[in-house]
Amino acid sequence: MLKGHRTWxxxxxxxxxxxxxxxxPFEAKGKIPEAFDILHGDTWLEQDSFEKAQQVMLEEACQxxxxxxxxQKEQVEFFIGGDLINQITPTTLAAKTLDIPYFGIFSAxxxxxxxxxxxxxxxxxxxANYILSGTASHNSATERQFRYPTEYGGQKPPTAQWTxxxxxxxxxxxxxxxxxxxxxxxxxxxxLGITDPFNMGSAMAPAAxxxxxxxxxxxxxxxxxxxxxxxxxxxxxxREISFDLxxxxxxxxxxxxxxDCGIAIYKEEQPVLSGGSGTASSAVGIxxxxxxxxxxxxxxxxxxxATGALHSPMSMQQKGSIPxxxxxxxxxxxxxxx
Amino acid sequence: MLKGHRTWxxxxxxxxxxxxxxxxPFEAKGKIPEAFDILHGDTWLEQDSFEKAQQVMLEEACQxxxxxxxxQKEQVEFFIGGDLINQITPTTLAAKTLDIPYFGIFSAxxxxxxxxxxxxxxxxxxxANYILSGTASHNSATERQFRYPTEYGGQKPPTAQWTxxxxxxxxxxxxxxxxxxxxxxxxxxxxLGITDPFNMGSAMAPAAxxxxxxxxxxxxxxxxxxxxxxxxxxxxxxREISFDLxxxxxxxxxxxxxxDCGIAIYKEEQPVLSGGSGTASSAVGIxxxxxxxxxxxxxxxxxxxATGALHSPMSMQQKGSIPxxxxxxxxxxxxxxx
Lengths: 338, 338
Fold this sequence. Notes:
2 copies of one chain form a homodimer.
Chain A: E1 2-3, E2 7-9, E3 15-23, H1 25-28, E4 38-39, H2 50-67, E5 78-81, H3 89-98, E6 102-104, H4 111-124, E7 130-137, H5 139-146, E8 162-163, E9 166-173, E10 180-185, H6 200-219, E11 228-231, H7 235-248, E12 258-260, H8 261-264, E13 276-277, H9 279-295, E14 301-309, H10 313-317, E15 324-332
Parallel strand pairs in A: 3-4, 5-6, 5-7, 8-13, 11-12, 11-14
Antiparallel strand pairs in A: 1-2, 2-10, 3-9, 7-9, 10-15, 14-15
Helix pairs in contact in A: 2-3, 6-7
């Protein structure tokens, strides 16, 4: 099952039998509103804190995935999730509501694919029949914790990104109908010394490139094996750096083959600077937008590369640089689809 | 491999081929200094922050485990770890130093056994040959983040606990000499509404009891199967509640069969109130103290039940209660030992 040093092959082909995605009003006005199963008209969701609103979005995404599947909640053995908020409390409280045995994980905005990789490994090896894996982020909760409350109106440079308010999850099963998860490559911490938390795309780009190149090498394929290689939240700045780095390192990926969830989600005229970010960026993008391309037959093979900046506000205050990671999961058309 | 709903059986018997444990000066004066491979004379470890000291302890524990094993660092496929500090930055930065592909996890003080359960599952299923799993905590870093800086001299009630300054890790392999990991039961979030962060033993007790009872039931054994059932950091208050709850629920566990790492680590006269806590409590206790009992032949079967309180300072300020979890891992004498 291990191929090379960092890659798993899933011979039993675990299936994503359903997904759930939730977004806020700003996402509803974006470029891909059809990617969301549920869209909310305001960011509070009738809760008394943004953190609770984030929790509710994750609960809704999971409940939607279960409702749209042939199984009952009680059949799901494990929930694997995490988020950006300190001690991942929104995810934990969603796990409590869901009442499903729980693995808490943290890879910042790479959490979605860390979770999907683990879920696929466990299902593939017979450790569960059904696993839910998901994450959520909330613009106001994240801004307050990592930078300033949005009410301050602080200005940002053009390299900064906009945290997605949303949630996305996938329900993985050992058999069924849907896209199949065929392999995963686990990230290493890559840190080239960038210390500007308003330029996370640049910080994350080398981690994305390291994981993509390792994945192709360990799988013994070239970039043309994939119809799309989709990153999580590099934004325009990080995507361009990654594109150039890949070419420099001998991976002549094509422009149209290399997309980013953080660029796909918002319209050009929305004030998101370099693009979307947050744990929900890749979760909503992959589960809500790109899997549709698979099920509709527009593409056959996607490499989903979620990218995470693993710093904390305190590690920034202590003048640390931004350690980054990227986890890649290969998702292909199910045999019943293609 | 799945038995019941929440339990994994590891038929291929992954082996803990080596361990590493690190402690501070207060731990050196405790009841089990022999549990530590490395003891430091001061809590700064020549670093300029407590968080960096915590990171260095984890690096030392991992490096010690590798040095004391027959393998090289480059042979370790994955590092699985997490800690209590926001965004688990000390663990992430240790993963960067170690330069090993990394799964970040978070279960508060149950992190040690979430990591060991995942490591055992992955090794057992052929997803790796060697995995390092570990965690660290630092009294001053944790107190500052969750309560007040220790310099304030804030008073605490007798139910409060003392965060262990230390680190513990295990190096798991598919074959070799050492204690074997035979099964694991994954926790559910249990929350009985306790809102006092100075009484986490009481909050965690029901989670520990839920996981222990589920484990025994799904494994089809009674409590006498284990020589010792060892919890992570219930402290005196939480242990007594758990003991009573187990008896109430029909598990007549014996006093001498039910130990707690948070009670084992410090002397009666040390001012730790209800006992030790922190992610390092179970890591140091299990990897440094209780595994010795296995290798010395004093006991043959241990159920290690790490317990975690999953709140954050913000979730407390927002008047939330304390959601808790416990993950259990069964560790038995290796055939080459017993």
